[in-house]
Design brief:
The protein is α+β, with helices and mostly antiparallel strands and about 110 residues long. It has a single domain, classed as Alpha-Beta Plaits, CATH 3.30.70.100. It is built from 3 helices and 4 strands, in the order E-H-E-E-H-H-E. A 4-stranded antiparallel β-sheet has the order 2-3-1-4. A hairpin with a 3-residue loop joins strand 2 and strand 3. The two termini are about 15 Å apart. About 15% of the residues are buried. This is Antibiotic biosynthesis monooxygenase.
Length: about 110
């Protein structure tokens, strides 16, 4: 699915928070267990991190060509969260859903 001709039409946004002292550890784990397997299956993926005093928030945005492609890969409703094995150990609370947005316009260089 990760072909140069694929264009993103859908953004799937996941958010999770961890205790600040475990942020580096979770970031590495999240990449290996969650992001790396996703890279070749989507049009693109971006990760964001905001360090706060007592916690760190991570945001992952994956880009898909369609809702159908997302559903075909996950085998479930696109808004369902697919928790990683160690998420209950790391995350302050387990997210109950993700946000799905239709990409309307893109301007400039975002990649």
């Amino acid at each position: 699915m990760n072909e140069p001709s694929s264009r993103p039409a859908i953004a799937r946004i996941w958010r999770g928070r961890v205790r600040r002292e475990r942020a580096d550890e979770y970031e590495a784990y999240n990449f290996e267990a969650g992001i790396r397997p996703l890279i070749e299956k989507v049009v693109g993926v971006q990760t964001f991190r905001e360090d706060r005093e007592g916690e760190t928030e991570f945001v992952t945005i994956s880009y898909w060509p369609s809702l159908e492609a997302m559903t075909a890969l996950t085998g479930a409703a696109p808004t369902n969260v697919h928790h990683l094995l160690l998420d209950p150990e790391f995350l302050i609370e387990l997210p109950q859903s993700v946000q799905i947005l239709k990409l309307r316009q893109a301007y400039g260089r975002t990649g």
